[in-house]
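Researcher: Structure prediction, please.
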Amino acid sequence: MRRYAAKYLELIKQPSSPDCYNETKKMIMNEFEIEADNEYEKRRFKLKSIGNQWYEIYDQENDSLGQIKIDDQNHEHCETKGCTLDMPILNSIRKNILLYKIFGED
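Model: Predicted structure follows.
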């Protein structure tokens, strides 16, 4: 939490700009981007934490592709709702969310 507070203070000291606004919004909304792949392709996704370990998955055009829940007790397990993605991509997304939670966005 301190990391976010420090970054927020750093951003609000800068002159107003769209980048400053977008970075602040991402921090407040807990949004982040990842790259996920299967054996055929790499894709970028935007993720938004929606609470209780659930994340909304968006493509680069901001279209929702479904939701994924990360199980903190069993990192090999996850639940999905309304996902239109195949299992290899979902597994890659799951792994990248776990990495994000461990290492953060910095």
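Model: The chain has a mean pLDDT of 79.
Researcher: Thanks, that helps.
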